[in-house]
Structure to design on (146 residues):
């Protein structure tokens, strides 16, 4: 998903403004690939937790469930906001990249087993949410309500 988020940033620069909706579809495809990978990992598991990165990450049932919830939430957020941003005329690819980066942070938070991993994933998630809250899309929606 990190690679998809970086490619979404590049696609924003390369594509013309009228075709920026393709970044949303690419982000949804990246989330779908991550979901397929998650299901394959779950089905190939033997029920024993899998450790990675010298015990910093542990994949168990808890991690799989919450990673699936985060993927569904990100897919719904992108799918719902695509039409809204199109109506508002604020269709920007960095929004989708930030949602993907926040999802990566949440997924690492679900499977983190070391304090450093938990802290770094929490910071990745929080910093992307700070930028999303301060983005022009959020500000234009708030000023139109007043």
């Amino acid at each position: 998903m990190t690679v998809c988020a970086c490619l979404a940033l590049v696609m924003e620069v390369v594509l013309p403004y009228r075709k920026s909706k393709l970044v949303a579809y690419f982000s949804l495809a990246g989330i779908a690939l991550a979901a397929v990978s998650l299901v394959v990992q779950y089905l190939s598991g033997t029920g024993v937790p899998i450790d990675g990165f010298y015990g910093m990450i542990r994949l168990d049932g808890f991690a799989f469930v919450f990673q699936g919830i985060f993927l569904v939430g990100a897919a719904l957020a992108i799918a719902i906001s695509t039409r809204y941003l199109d109506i508002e005329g604020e269709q920007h690819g960095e929004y989708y990249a930030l949602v993907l980066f926040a999802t990566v942070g949440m997924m690492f938070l679900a499977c983190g087993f070391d304090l450093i991993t938990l802290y770094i994933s929490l910071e990745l998630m929080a910093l992307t949410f700070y930028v999303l809250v301060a983005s022009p899309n959020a500000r234009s929606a708030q000023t139109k309500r007043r």
Remarks:
- The CA atoms of residues 70 and 103 lie 6 Å apart.
